[in-house]
C-alpha cells in the first residue's frame, strides 16, 4: 500500500535558492531557529548527494571495467565505513548497491521538524549547552550528558557535540545507517526510483522507533504542516 501511493514522476524537480521571503510565515523565535538550522541541513543533504553521485560513477566504472583503481577503492572503503557497510567480505558491486540505499538525502522538512521537536526550537538545555539538536542517545560516557530526568536503572546519555553542524551530520548518519530505520530507507528508495519525494508522510510513518512517545509521528506531521515546512524541501543554497 505504501509503495502504491508513490506515483512515477517524469518531470524534473525544480529547486530554488533559499531567500528571506521563505521565512516570512514564521514567528520570530521559529524564524531564527530555522534560519540557523536549515542551511546546515541543506548543506548536509548536498554533501550526501555528492557522495551518492560518486557511488553511481564508481558503479558505472565497475560495470564497464570490472575493476576500480586504488583511489576509487579507498573512496569506497571510506564511505562504507561511515555508513557501516562491511567492506572486506563482499563484492564491490554489492557494496555499492547497499550503500546506495543509505547514501541518500532526507527531506529538509522532516529533519527540520525533528530538530524543532527534540530541541524545543533550540531552547532546550541540550541544544544550548551541548549543541544537541536531535536528542540522540549514546552509552559512551565520553560522548554524552546525563539527562536530568533519567529514571533509576537507565544508562543512556544524550549525545553532545562541538557544534550544531556536527549534530546534524550525526542525525543523518543515524537515520541512514541504523537498522531501526531500514523501512524508512526502503520507502525512500522507491521514491528515488519513481523520482517522487512529494509525500513525506510516508517517510515520517517509519520514524516511530525514534522516540518512545506514541504520538511522535503525529507530532512530526503536525509541526511540518502547521509551519509549512514543505516549502523548504525544494530549497538549496548557492555559495
Give structural attributes.
mainly alpha; two-stranded parallel ribbon; 51% helix; 239 residues; single chain; 9 helices
Helix and strand arrangement:
Layout: E1 16-17, H1 28-65, H2 70-82, H3 92-102, H4 108-119, H5 125-130, E2 137-138, E3 144-145, E4 157-159, H6 164-177, H7 182-193, H8 201-204, H9 216-226, E5 235-236
Parallel strand pairs: 1-5
Antiparallel strand pairs: 2-4, 3-4
Helix pairs in contact: 1-3, 1-4, 1-6, 4-9
What does this structure look like?
This protein has 239 residues and is mainly alpha-helical. It is 51% helix and 5% strand. It has helices at 28-65, 70-82, 92-102, 108-119, 125-130, 164-177, 182-193, 201-204, 216-226, and strands at 16-17, 137-138, 144-145, 157-159, 235-236. The longest helix has 38 residues, at 28-65. It is globular, with a radius of gyration of 19 Å.
Amino acid at each position: 500500500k505504501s509503495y502504491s501511493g508513490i506515483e512515477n514522476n517524469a518531470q524534473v524537480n525544480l529547486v530554488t535558492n533559499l531567500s528571506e521571503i521563505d521565512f516570512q510565515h514564521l514567528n520570530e523565535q521559529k524564524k531564527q531557529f530555522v534560519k540557523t538550522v536549515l542551511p546546515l541541513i541543506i548543506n548536509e543533504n548536498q554533501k550526501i548527494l555528492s557522495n551518492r553521485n560518486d557511488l553511481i560513477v564508481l558503479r558505472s566504472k565497475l560495470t564497464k571495467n570490472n575493476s576500480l583503481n586504488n583511489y576509487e577503492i579507498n573512496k569506497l572503503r571510506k564511505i562504507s565505513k561511515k555508513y557501516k557497510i562491511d567492506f572486506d567480505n563482499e563484492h564491490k558491486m554489492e557494496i555499492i548497491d547497499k550503500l546506495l540505499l543509505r547514501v541518500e538525502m532526507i527531506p529538509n522538512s522532516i529533519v527540520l521538524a525533528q530538530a524543532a521537536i527534540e530541541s524545543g526550537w533550540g531552547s532546550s538545555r541540550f541544544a544550548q549547552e551541548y549543541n544537541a539538536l536531535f536528542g540522540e542517545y549514546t552509552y559512551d560516557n565520553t560522548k554524552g550528558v546525563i539527562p536530568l530526568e533519567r529514571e533509576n536503572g537507565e544508562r543512556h546519555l544524550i549525545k553532545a557535540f562541538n557544534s550544531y553542524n556536527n549534530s546534524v551530520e550525526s542525525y543523518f548518519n543515524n537515520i541512514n545507517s541504523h537498522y531501526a530505520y531500514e523501512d524508512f530507507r526502503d520507502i525512500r528508495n522507491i521514491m528515488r526510483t519513481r523520482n517522487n519525494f512529494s509525500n513525506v508522510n510516508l517517510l515520517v510513518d517509519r520514524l516511530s522507533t525514534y522516540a518512545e512517545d506514541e504520538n511522535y509521528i503525529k507530532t512530526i506531521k503536525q509541526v511540518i504542516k502547521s509551519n509549512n515546512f514543505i516549502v523548504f524541501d525544494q530549497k538549496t543554497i548557492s555559495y
